[in-house]
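Example record

The entry below shows one chain as it appears in the dataset: sequence first, then structure tokens.
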Amino acid sequence: MSADAITPTITEQADLETLCEELSAAPEIAFDTEFVSEDTFYPELCLVQVATRDSSAVVDAISVEDVTPLWEVITRGKHTTVFHAGREELNFMLRAVGELPHKLFDVQIAAGFCGNEYPASYGSIVGKFLGHKPLKGEQRTDWRKRPLTSAQVRYALEDVRFLLPLYDKFNDTLGERGRLSWLDEELENWQQEVAAAHKRKDWRRVSGIGKLGPRGLAIVREVWHWRLAEAERRNIPAKRVLRDDLIVEMAKRKTDQADQILNIRGMQKGTLTRKADELAECVRRGLEAEVENIPRSRPHAPSQLALLGQFLTPALTTICQRAEVAASMVGTASDVRELVAHRVGFAGADKQETPALARGWRAELVGNLINELLDGKRSIRIVNSKNADPLSFDDVP
């Protein structure tokens, strides 16, 4: 595809149907979206850009009658669907047709298996692996405004122009390194996580709840569910209805009196004033709820767990650098501590779930070595403190 060739934007439903027929025969479909998320409960879809080996197109999601046929083609065909950091794109599909692509390929995840940067931007990946520089200039544009300019359409097409070349590049590279199975495993797990998160009502993501007890957490849960329903009803972002810090403050005060709730600084907005009785009822339900199933804080970790975590985390980083796999994709210091706690049997370790670093390709890359270090079968030695890669992992006689 030439960067100078501008495809006419599809604004009519009949043209979209024709495009879908053409896409249904393609072995790979690359796609991206442009959306605006700051003003609505769900992000507002504005454009969908698609590309095959032979052509590309821009679909004006605001102007066409219904984008559903496009999502049906992408999710129900036997092709490979290629994108970059496609979580929100998958959420569009789940909301529209309740399905995900038969086979997907995220170039951001693939890049993490070929270098030390993750998550990497589209421009960074294109530059590093293809030696090109995508067009810029419309990152802050309001994609809801019409008519679209030629510059906007050109920028939108850039987001799919290099996806299939990247797909080919990463397939070749990972095939040579024997890591295609690693990528398949990670993409499958990631796809399952996206689907699960789409259904999950995860009130535990409210920020600032770490020090709350079970009763406070029960109040957070009830108020969070109210906020979610209110935001969806009004079609605005949830935190515009009620901020996280105000939910936490309500949980700390544990009062179900509307006037006392309104005394909390920040609760004097007109909409919240009118909803004070509903918020009081939420707190009341939290005060009366069973708390046996509310997760309590983990027991204080023994001091040697933190020490072992600090000692072993650089080992993870070193292994990943040598393998040209992004350490941030493999695991964090918390993941290392989780593996140590599970392996050594520290109090508070989840004995039911296998730690991430002990499963699949992560165990193959780093987890097994960490286990050998914990067992005393391997040691870490400084070979040359002036070297950028100073550590050596040696067998213990």
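Notes for this example: The chain has a mean pLDDT of 93. DSSP finds 18 helices and eight strands in the chain.
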